[in-house]
């Protein structure tokens, strides 16, 4: 993984680095809010191997290597310091960046994240991995069942539900096997107490993949972290886009961001 990941750079102002989820992409996880964030910040969004336009990895992914690569991309884009918005697996990447490159990070926003997968998440990862070898439609149904908030899911018409499952089946990135392998390996518990930058932890209260207990653990472990709970499933960018964007913008507006672009 010596080559830079494909990435987008949008906007101007203080730096904001995006760290997307496993089996996701920058556009897939943050697409609904990037334009708004780019009104006030220089947004840098790298895609992990096998997502977006980044070639798939030839072996397992390593959290340190992914973290270092994201930092290198941000610095190459002109950002000496930056806040990080991490989603799901991206919260582990964000915490590891703050641990390995503390001089670069001005703040952390950790959404629908976890410190270490519990048995529930490990089971989900195992099913996810096995279904990747077979029927993508069945995998999309499983992920929709596990991850979508009850309120949002049950408000869909049969046609909307079918379209959502079909869309997800088409979206599943080629690098998903490596992504979910990385999810299973994350353990940032010992690093949390050493984080000294402002942190906002956003819990998704109807999330079956990363339930709010995970986010509460993140917030309890990071000194001074703020915890906000939003009624949504794992797909917060679709289910509660405006509320998510609002708390992100509020945090960024009140967080020192010296050394931007």
Automatic annotation (TrEMBL):
Gene3D superfamilies: alpha/beta hydrolase
Keyword Chloroplast applies: no
InterPro entries: AB_hydrolase, AB_hydrolase_1, AB_hydrolase_fold
Keywords annotated in UniProt: Hydrolase
GO MF: hydrolase activity
Keyword Hydrolase: yes
AB hydrolase-1 domain location: 16-236
Name of the molecule in the record: Alpha/beta hydrolase
Annotated source species: Amycolatopsis regifaucium
High-level lineage: Bacteria, Bacillati, Actinomycetota, Actinomycetes, Pseudonocardiales
